[in-house]
Amino acid sequence: RQMFGFDPLEYIGGVLLTSVSFCGFKLYLVLGFSL
Q1: What pLDDT does residue 5 have?
Q2: Cβ distance 3 to 9 under 8 Å?
Q3: Do 8 and 1 touch, CB atoms closer than 8 A?
Q4: Membrane-spanning regions, if any (predicted)?
Q5: So what's the pLDDT on residue 3?
Q6: Contact 7/1 with Cβ under 8 angstroms?
Q7: How do residues 4-31 score in pLDDT, each as one tens digit?
């Protein structure tokens, strides 16, 4: 698992977490504006 000096699973988890929170934030903004 320890390739290229970083953990690929940690990297993928971080990317997923970032994209999920970003989508959640956009959804929150859209809902906030439409209400």
Answers
A1: 72
A2: no
A3: yes
A4: 12-31
A5: 58
A6: yes
A7: 677 888 889 999 999 999 999 999 999 9
Sole residue written with tokens 């971080």:
14
CA-based diameter of the chain, in Å? 47
Please state whether 4 falls in left (phi above 0), alpha (psi between -120 and 50) or beta: left
DSSP state of 34: H
22 φ/ψ angles, rounded to the nearest 5 degrees: -65, -45
What type of residue sits at position 27? L
Q: pLDDT at position 2, please? A: 55
Output the six-digit token pair for 27: 């959804």
Token pair, residue 24, equals: 């959640």
Predicted TM-score (pTM) of the model is: 0.53
